[in-house]
Amino acid sequence: SVGPAALELGRRRQIWYSDKGHSIAEHWPSQSSTSSSSSPPWSPAIETREVELVTLPKGRVGVNIVKEKTKISRVLYSDAFNAGFRVGDEIVEVNGRQVDTNLAVRRAVRRAVAAHKRSGAPVRFRVRRWSPRNSGRGMVKMTKGKGVDHAVPMLDLTRGVVQDYPVVLLMEGSLSRPGSRLSSRTIELLDEAGVAFKVLDCSDEKSNPGVLQAVKDLSGEATLPQLYVGGRLLAAGSAILRLRRSDELRTALQ
Questions:
Q1: Beta strands, E only, 54-89
Q2: If we measure between CA atoms, which residue out of 88, 208, 87, 213 comes closest to residue 144?
Q3: CA angle, 95 then 101 then 103, to 5°
Q4: Which one of 76, 105, 123, 145 is CB 3.0 to 4.6 Å from 207, fit for a cystine?
Q5: Which parts of the chain fold into alpha helices (H)?
Q6: Is pTM, for the whole model, over 0.90?
């Protein structure tokens, strides 16, 4: 997930925090999850990911790190994001060298960048990331509803949500109260398909300030709902229903 610097688990919600301790996003599992698994609505896990930068735009890795820590506070360039960096990732290794302090990270990165300039060798990172697995059907909110209290751009957060969750529905309204008949029908289609999915309410400016513009910037589409599968826009608006008729929706969700 693009925002998590930490993850607090409660019985009913997950909260992602920024490096300054402010809430970045919250997730409430649905009461009526379609999952048949006997596992709990979510299972916290730390994943280790490999990130490889083949090119360095402007000679930089393209991320900012929290002062005196090894956690990423901002992903600056699309190359770094597409390589796999996310806000909240904890850097644990640079080009095979283990790092456990801010100073160690900065020194290792300087060496790696210098090596890249000399030989063109890719810069490789190993990062640790909190990952909510088996999180089921639920809503995602970007803030606690008190305005933006972090520096992570809404576009970055939205991009992270659609890339890091397998199926995401961007729409107006909530699971319990969809904002349009089309959104309601799309939810029914996903439930019929038996897949877990996340919903981001693009009309909730209180909890998700600026998300509607971020959605437009991300997809180039203003039409809602938008259905993302595997990190890519599958369809928007009434085109989602046409996918069902052609059986393309079920194929994409498998």
A1: 63-65, 72-75
A2: 208
A3: 80
A4: 145
A5: 78-83, 102-119, 154-164, 181-193, 211-219, 239-245, 248-253
A6: no
